Amino acid sequence: MSSNAYWYIGLSIVSLLVLTIALARAKSLRAVFHVFMMTQMAYLIETVIYIFGSSYFYRPGFLKDSAYFDSNMGALTSNMLVIPTAALVIAVYRLRWKGIAVAIALIGAIEWLWVELGLYTLNWWRIEYTAIGLTMYFPFARLVYDRLRRPAAGILHSSLLFLVVAPILGTLHIVPIMLVMNRSYDPGWFGDPPHDTTAFSSVYYVVMALVIVTTMKIQRGHTWVKFLAIASFIFIVTRVLLATELLRIHVWWDPWYYCLFPSTAYLLLKPVSARLARGG
C-alpha cells in the first residue's frame, strides 16, 4: 500500500464518523434513503464526467495491477462517502447558503490539497467546476430530504426508488471486478480494458436497477416468482453478452453472483417502495 492510501483512508474514516453523527441526529430511515439517493446522484455525475469524460484521475495507491481500477477506488471515496455525507449534514442540520458555502470551500480545499500532493490529477477539469456543481447538488440534497417527508407516487416514486436501489447494485457490481477481476467487458469504447469494463458496468447496473424498480412497481405476482424472473432475465443477458463477446468471465462463481445478488437486492429492498409511498 502506497503512502497515498493513508490520505484516502483518513478521509474515509472522517467521513464515516461525520456520517454516523448525522444519521444519529436524524434518527430517521429517510436519512439512510437520502444517503443512497445522493450517492447515486454522485455516481451518475461521475459516470458522465469521470468515466466517459476522462475529467480527472484518482491515485489512492490501493491496487497495483490496474491504475484505472485503483482510480475507481478513489472515486468511491469521493462519491460514496465524502460528497453524500456532506449532503446529509447540510440536509439534516438545515444549513443555508453560508453553511453550503463553507462545505463547498472545504471540499475545494481538499481537492486542491489532493492535487498538490499528487493524490489526484486534473485533466480538463478544474476545481471551480466542482464548486459550481456543488452549488446545485447541495440545495438539491435539501429538497430531496424535505420531500421524503411526504408520500411519493407515480414517476416521482419510481425515481426515488431508483435512486435508492441503483447505488447498491452499482457498488456490488463493480467492486468484485476491481478486487478480483472476476469478469471483464469489452465494448471497445476506450483503449484501456479496465476503463472499458468500468464504462460498460456503469450502463449495465443502471439497466438492472431499472428492471428491479419496474418489477417492484408491478403489483401482481408472487414475490418469489419475481425473484426467479429477475435471476432468469440476468442469466439470459449474461448468455447474450458472452455470445457477442462483450463479456468475458474469469471465475466459476461469477454467473451465480451476478444472477443472484440483484434478485436478493429485490427481496431486501422491496419494503423501501412501500416506505417511500408512505413518506415520513
From TrEMBL:
Q: Which domain of life is it from?
A: Bacteria
Q: Where is the signal peptide?
A: none
**What is the name attached to this protein's record?**
Uncharacterized protein
Native species: Paenibacillus xanthanilyticus
Q: Which UniProt keywords apply?
A: Membrane, Transmembrane, Transmembrane helix
Q: Does the keyword Kinase apply?
A: no
Transmembrane domains' residue ranges: 6-24, 31-53, 73-93, 100-121, 127-145, 157-179, 199-216, 223-243
